[in-house]
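Archive entry. Fields below.
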Amino acid sequence: MATLKVPATVPSPSEDAEQLRKAFAGWGTNEALIISILGHRTAARRRAIRQAYHQTYNEDLLKSLDGEISGDFERAVLLWTLDPAERDAWLANEAVRKWRPGNRVLIEIACARSSRELFAVRQAYHARFKRSLEEDVAAHTTGDFRKLLVPLVSAYRYENAEVNLTLAKSEAKMLHEKISGKAYNHEDLIRILATRSKAQLVATFNYYNDEFGNSVNKDLKCDPKDEFLAALRAAIRCICFPERYFEKVIRSAINGLRTEENALTRVITTCAEVDLKEIAEVYQKRNSMPLEHAIKGDTTGDYEAMLLALLGQEA
Amino acid sequence: MATLKVPATVPSPSEDAEQLRKAFAGWGTNEALIISILGHRTAARRRAIRQAYHQTYNEDLLKSLDGEISGDFERAVLLWTLDPAERDAWLANEAVRKWRPGNRVLIEIACARSSRELFAVRQAYHARFKRSLEEDVAAHTTGDFRKLLVPLVSAYRYENAEVNLTLAKSEAKMLHEKISGKAYNHEDLIRILATRSKAQLVATFNYYNDEFGNSVNKDLKCDPKDEFLAALRAAIRCICFPERYFEKVIRSAINGLRTEENALTRVITTCAEVDLKEIAEVYQKRNSMPLEHAIKGDTTGDYEAMLLALLGQEA
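PREDICTED_STRUCTURE:
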C-alpha cells in the first residue's frame, strides 16, 4: 500500500501550478509550499499540474524546480514529480551511463515492477532517450552482467498465479546442479530467472529450499564479495520479496558510514505510491524503530521534510 | 499496401454472422459464401463478426469453421480470421512446439513486424498460452539459436529514423571483424542485430557494404548449408527488406518439388492487410509472372479461391 497522503479536497491543477509559481517568486524559495503541494498529490495529479504549469507559464515545471532548489532535496522532488515510468526510465538511464557491477537499479526496475510497468518504462525510455533500454544496457555492460541484465530488462513475464509443479521441480534441480557446480553464469540459470513468471519462480525456489535444505539465495552467498552473485541474489529478492529487498536497501543507506541519499531517495520516491507502507512495516520489525524515526535521525531540512511527506508523516 | 478488397458497403457483423451460419447449415458447406464474406473483411470487422457470431449462436466461429472445412483451405481461413497479433502468437507457438533450425517463423515475427506489433504478439501469447513467448522460445530452443532467438523475440526496438553514423561505422567494423573471424555466434554480433533500431541497422549494413565491398548477407553466405547462418541472413532480410524476404518465401514455397502450402498460407494471411501489394510487385519483377498466376498454377479449389480473394483477385 501507498504511504502518500492526499488531502480530502485537492485544489485544481491550475491552482496548484499557480501556488508553485508563487513558491518560486521573489527572493528565496518557499520549499515548504513546494512540499505541501507536490508531496501530497498522486501521479495523475502531478502530471496534470505539470501540464497546467506549462500551459500557463510556457515553462517546464521540472526546469523551474531545477533552478530553484538543489542537492538531495532537488533530486527527491524531481524524481517524485516524474511519472513512475518516466522516473524509472530516467533512473535506468543514469544507472546505464554510470554502470558499475554494484549498481542494483536495473535489477530493481526489471524485477520488482510488474510486466506492464516494465514495458511502460521501455516505452518511456524510447520517448526520452531515442534509444531502447535493452540497447543501452547491452552496449554499456559486459560479460556475465550483460548476459543477465539484457534478458531481465527485456522480459515480459506471464503474470497470473498458475504454477506448473513438475516444471518447478525439474528447474529447481537444474538450478541446484548449476549452483553446486559453481556455474552461476550458466545460460539455463539465467534463462529460468529471466523468463519464468514470478509465481512459477516462487514455486521453483520453494521446492529448491525443501529438497536441498538451503534457500537458493543462501547457496548463492558462498562468496560475499562476488558482485555477480550479489546481482543474482538481488534479482531473486526483487522477484520474490520486493518489500524485504527494499527494506534492506533503505537499511544499508541509513546505516552506512555516510547516508546514501540517492538510494534512500530512489526507494522512497518509487515506492511511496506502491508498497512503501509494507516496506516501512518490514523496516520497523527488522530494526525495532519506525522508518520515519530513522529518517529523522539521518536527514535534515527540506530533504527530510520531503521524505517524511512521502511517508505520510509530518516533519 | 494491403491487397485485401472490401466492398463499398459491408453488411453488419450480425448479418455476416448469420450468412456464415447459413453457409454451415444442412448437407455440405457453402465454401464460396465463407470466402465471399471473410475474404473481404478487415481485421476489425472480422473481430466484430466473431463477437456477433458468438453472441447469437453461443459458439466460437473458429470452432464452427473447424467442423465445416478442412485441409489447407481450413488453415488459410482460420489463420486469416484471427486478429493479427493472435495469429502471430499462434504461429509462434506452433513454431516453438515443432521447433527445428530451418524454421523461420519466429525470426519473421520478431524482425518483420513493428515494435508495437511484436509487443502485441507477446500480449496475445500471454492471453492464449498462459506463458510468455520468450519463456517458450528459451525452453524449446538450444545453443546458438537460443542465443539469437530469445533477444530477437524480446526486443522492443526504437522506431524513429534517427541514425548515429559514428555508431554505424564502429559497429559495421565490429560485425566485419566477427564475420571475418567466423565468430558468427559472437555476443556482440547478436547484441547489435537484436537491439539496434532498424534505421540504425540499415545504416550499419550500408557502411559495411561500402567499406568492405560485400553486403553483410553475402559475407554470411560462406556456408550455404549452415542453418544458423541462414537464420542470421533471414533476420537481416526481415529487418532491411521484408518485401524481398517474403517474396522469396513465396517463391520457394511455389517452386519446390511440392508446394509448401503452410509457408504460402502464412505469408498471404499475414501480409494481405499489410504489404502484400509490394510483395506481389517484387514477385512479378523477379519471376516475370504475376503472383496470382503462379498461385492459380500451383493451388486448386477453395484453397486457391481463398488465397486469390486475399490477393484482391477473382478466382
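CURATOR_NOTE: Chain A has a mean pLDDT of 96.
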